[in-house]
Amino acid sequence: MSQQHELVTALAAPWVVLSPRSGQLTGSGTEGVYARDRRLLSRLAVTVDGVEPLPLQVDEQSASTHVYVAKVDREETALLYRRREVSRDGMTEHITLVNNSRETLTCRLEVALGTDLAGIVQVRNSSAVTLPTIEPQYDGLSRIYWENEGTRVTAELDPGTTATPELAPGEQFTMIIKVIASVPRSVSGFDIDPPVNTIVYTASVHCSDHRVERWFARSLDDVQALQLAIGNDRYLGAGPPWYLTLFGRDSLISAGMLIPVDPELAAGTLRALAAWQGTKVDIDTAEQPGKIPHELRAEAAEHGTDFVLPPVYYGTHDATQLWITTLHKAWRWGMPSDQVSELLPNLRRGLEWMRDYADPDGDGFLEYIDESGHGLANQGWKDSDDSVQWPNGDIATAPIALCEVQGYAYAAAVRGAELLDAFGESGDEWRAWAAALQERFRSAFWVDGYPAIALDGAKNAVAGRASNMGHLLGTGLLDADEEQRVADILGEDDLDSGFGLRTLSTTMSRFNPIGYHTGSIWPHDTAMTVQGLYATGHDDVASSYVAGLVRAAEGFDYRLPELYGGRGLSTEIRPTPYPGSCRPQAWAAASAVAVLVAALGIEPDAPGGTLTINPALSLPWSELRLEGLKVAGAPLTVEWRDGNAAVLEAPRDLQHLVS
Fold this sequence. Notes:
Blueprint: E1 8-12, E2 15-19, E3 25-26, E4 32-35, E5 38-41, E6 43-48, E7 54-60, E8 65-71, E9 78-87, E10 90-99, E11 105-106, E12 109-114, H1 120-124, E13 137-138, E14 143-148, E15 151-158, E16 162-163, E17 166-167, E18 172-182, E19 204-207, H2 210-225, E20 227-230, E21 233-236, H3 248-257, H4 263-274, E22 295-296, E23 301-304, E24 307-309, E25 312-313, H5 319-332, H6 337-342, H7 344-356, E26 401-402, H8 403-422, H9 428-444, E27 446-447, E28 450-451, E29 454-455, E30 461-462, H10 480-490, H11 523-535, H12 539-555, E31 564-565, E32 576-577, H13 586-599, E33 602-605, E34 610-613, E35 623-631, E36 634-641, E37 644-649, E38 655-658
Helix pairs in contact: 2-13, 3-4, 3-5, 3-13, 4-5, 5-7, 5-8, 7-8, 8-9, 11-12, 11-13
């Protein structure tokens, strides 16, 4: 059975196919055709004369189109090609047998199909292995369907599941399979739907290191394939197969990184989440007034007796702040003022949530605890049970006040205040609130010369070097000296793996290079830190991490996974796959855009009429040009060559400030 990291993913959200490199779906592990949190086909296997062809290669032509090549006979004179195309509403596969011999070939081509119609959580926790195979029903000779609890999957085969072609030399025979499905609408009111319109990206990169060009292009291809929508509001599903739905934190971070190439995606994500902003206190769902949700699904996700997430779940302590800072960034990049104005009530409620609900014990810090008993124990982006720990490996006790959550809150208050001022309201309350948080943070969080991971339930600063501190850079919470100290630590080998930023230092007792949040590398974690490093002028450290991401991208054929491992350049030439990571994944793909825009220091202020270009003093390349970016609805092209930056194309009404 292939592990998930070994599978090939063909994607056009909400449809996705995970298969081994043979293209065969055998019903084992996570193999299958999925859509809307359901495995629609678990088996799709091709045989010729009762024998599986020997796989030779897979050509991943795009995120949604793959061609699998296999040989049929020992003499290597017959080849089988499977062209798999995934669309927003189904999958089509062309199975073509080609006779390359000098003699007529007669054989029996068969396709076996089956399904358990398992829910996505059942597949993930392996309980799907106990599910019975659904009995197929037949509609004529070429149409098969399976039905269970309102879900219906139909496979139409031309000429049918079995064919006996007789091929003269040079001839070929093709069987076509089309798979569609109908799924009942949800009772929660949230459904996983494709976007109404297809998005085609025009942004591109020219770089003296061609690996960067390939990474950028493949990342945008994946971003396009990950798009979902609520009505006309597009957002990114976090990642297939487990997270192909709307997530507060993931979708916001991804959309924020992609504003330079797709500002409408951020606007859609902001509106989609605002529609589900909390209105009441509900311990079971972790809802609170003003709070942005963590994840939305059509049905509850029952991971186990003590871990059950409702269809609409609010167990995140950072999505609300990220919603505010994403709105601010979208506004600065040119989001129309009427669209921003429509979201000001949500902005105010988000700010009030930070003040009135996010600090339950009133100590001035934002902390969380799972009161339901069946939700997430940790509610930052590192949401595994062991992600907040002491150097000796002891797990910190709740309530937990994460350092980066305080940084996000500071930035949200300051930037939210700026938005309020710009639209005729006073932001003074929130600037004062941010200033008080900054002083409290400075006195409580610093330990051994760096910001602690968190404060635990006893208000002790949880020591230990981890990537969390990188998210503080660029928020404004730290002063220049503090930023320098953090940058110095981030530049050391215990955190810089050579392939990106480790989630946990090698000096920690529980360090594990493929530990989920205890030593692995997450591209978005690295990219967010890179953005902060460039923004605060620590170019050498930032560029080292960018070079590491490029190495990692090359190691994964330029499709970065959700996370991966890396012992370091001294022992490895490529990173280690993490067995259960999503690939592609939204914020991993968006990271390519984020780090390049940060490297060039592109900072528009469309409402203020300026465009600032402040590139890093040192970059890993001699030339970098970003084309087809968008600011204030107009194209933007910026070039950096041998230390000099130039704006080649930009809106005429913005004053260009190039340094």
